[in-house]
Design brief:
five-stranded antiparallel β-sheet; 29% helix; 3 helices
């Protein structure tokens, strides 16, 4: 074999090895991305099912619709990141009144680690909760519960997307977890208040599926939730090392009777 032939053979071998190395790297990145995506999807399924099961088992009445969203406001932004569900372990202390704090299950990001979505309960607090319309009192109570160590906390996921939020004044606020809760009532509270004031007829209320009788009507509380999780490893061609958030959505409904 001449020197020229040897050089050609070595060049071909180097090209083959380089091609195989690039192929192996692509396969490894694809496996890592798929594995991270699958783990995030499984984590989201567990979280959504846990929230949904709690909402489905909620207690509700005319004073408390079973689940409410306590939204925080900072820097001109609204953050509906806290879901409060009336879910007593057994019978409620006052099924026809307001719940107690120890009957609530709270879902929210961890204040100190916003990439964690947690479930909070306060078993030692038997106080009655404020009226639903008293948003200031609810914000103060929820903030106190989230900052205290008196409650019980269960971490549902550690993959929640989090990012800092800046106000209009360019003052950096603390990082927020990417989770959002919303509720919708049918009939709405405004419609119910109008009926109580005599401005709306009973039959004109937006009863869910039109289900109402002469003395009772069926109310629906639609609870919707969205969260964004980050795969532990996310590799995409051209964006190596950049984790792309994956959105997940869920919803549940609570039904209860309203009395004329």
């Amino acid at each position: 074999m001449t020197l020229l032939e040897l050089l050609i053979a070595m060049s071909i071998m180097v090209m083959v090895v380089g091609a195989m190395g690039a192929l192996a790297k692509g396969i490894q990145q694809s496996y890592q991305y798929t594995e991270g995506y699958g783990a995030a999807t499984q984590s989201a399924r567990v979280v959504l099912e846990r929230i949904g099961r709690t909402v489905r088992g909620a207690t509700a009445n005319e004073q408390f619709p079973g689940a409410i969203v306590v939204a925080d406001e900072a820097g001109g932004w609204r953050f509906p990141e806290v879901l409060v569900v009336w879910h007593p372990g057994g019978d409620a202390a006052r099924p026809d009144g307001l719940p107690r704090f120890n009957e609530l299950v709270i879902y929210c990001p961890n204040l100190s680690m916003p990439d964690q979505l947690i479930e909070l309960t306060v078993p030692g607090d038997s106080r009655e909760v404020p009226p639903v319309e008293n948003t200031a009192a609810w914000r103060a109570e929820i903030d106190s519960i989230r900052r205290s160590w008196s409650g019980r906390s269960v971490t549902l996921t550690k993959q929640l997307r989090s990012c800092p939020v800046s106000a209009a004044s360019s003052v950096s606020l603390h990082a927020r977890g990417a989770v959002r809760f919303e509720t919708r009532l049918r009939p709405s509270q405004a419609e119910w208040d109008a009926y109580k004031a005599g401005d709306t007829a009973w039959d004109d209320l937006a009863w869910v599926q039109g289900i109402c009788g002469s003395q009772t009507g069926l109310r629906q509380v639609w609870v919707r939730y969205e969260l964004q999780l980050l795969p532990e490893i996310s590799m995409i061609a051209g964006d190596e090392g950049i984790a792309r958030p994956i959105p997940f959505f869920g919803s549940e409904c609570i039904y209860y009777e309203m009395h004329r």
